[in-house]
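Hi support team,

I submitted a single chain yesterday and got back a structure, but I'm not sure I'm reading the token output correctly. Could someone confirm the output below corresponds to the sequence I sent? I've pasted both exactly as they appear in my results page.

Thanks,
R.
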Amino acid sequence: MAKSCKGLAMELVKCLSETDCVKVQKKGYRECAGEKEPSITSECVGLRETYFNCKRGQVDMRARIRGNKGY
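Hi R., thanks for writing in. Yes, this is the structure output for that exact sequence:
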């Protein structure tokens, strides 16, 4: 269960590394992921939301019994 969100995390990092926030402004991935600036693409925002839901599902007891909704 701990590794069920790993693929999403890697895709999010890959997506964020291609944004201006990381390239031009030289900010960290965590800083860029938390921002709601136009420098982050809508694809990265969608990945961020999906990753958040995946991590939240690991704490939710109902989801722990059934497992995370697949990635």
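A quick pointer for reading it: The chain has a mean pLDDT of 81. Let us know if anything else looks off.

Best,
Support desk
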